[in-house]
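This section describes the prediction task in plain terms. A model, or a person checking by hand, is given the sequence of a single protein chain and must write out its three-dimensional structure as a string of tokens. No templates, partner chains or ligands are provided. The sample shown here is typical of the held-out split.
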Amino acid sequence: MDKVRAAAGDGRQREYRVEELAEAAGITTRTLRFYRERKLLQPPRKEGRIAWYGEAHLARLRLIAELLERGHTLGGIAELIGAGESGQDVAELIGLEAAIIAPWSDETPVHLSWDELKATFGDQLTEETTAESIAQGYITVDEDGITHVSRRLMDATTAMVAEGVPLSVVLEASRHTQEHVDAIAEIFTTLVRDRMLGALAADTPLPPGEAARLTEQILRVRPLARAVTDAQFALAMDRRVHAEYDELLRQRLEREDESDDDGERTDADIRGTGNGERLTADG
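The expected answer:
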């Protein structure tokens, strides 16, 4: 009997033993058995002690490989497969997940050598400032230098230091900014989770077409969240800049008034002293 069974002209589908199926799918037999244990792969047809797999198993393995390539976890793949087996449209579910987890940023990483960093930051490049950058999650360190996740942020940091702002102060501002934008992100993710994606937490399958509807809704809402954040930040900057500038003017005027008062008191003291001397002399 051939290892790979394919009937010629009898209408039967091709069948594989475990080794041939793994080879056809481009994985190891160990991985295939692992998928079976995780219930990602449907049971084979048994013929005595021999397990036979068909084209449906190969298609499932190729689907798993594609989803892993897209960044899905095995747990997420298991949920998608379970949803498909319960009658839901897997393609729509994959589209919904892609819309939810699609990257918001399009930052370009940049690598700088230690010599370039030293030339840019000089003595401000210390173990403390490097450790703070690592703690914020923006850089990774290797023997040749550092890789920053965002060229824009790196360029902004370099420019601020060039303007005379100490690197430690820039990093402190970065840390506080990160804390606040994390809070803003939580506001929007909570809104979407509670007001739009509540059906995903339910035990019942999504109704037909619901995943596609949610996908379209997510795609519409994403740019709105960024627009709201940009507008709110600009308005907040207007308020704070005007308030800070008004406070600076008030303090300056107070110092000028105090200076004028001190000048008037000094003149009066001089005049008073002079009169007293003349009175003494006349007496």
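For orientation: The mean pLDDT is 86.
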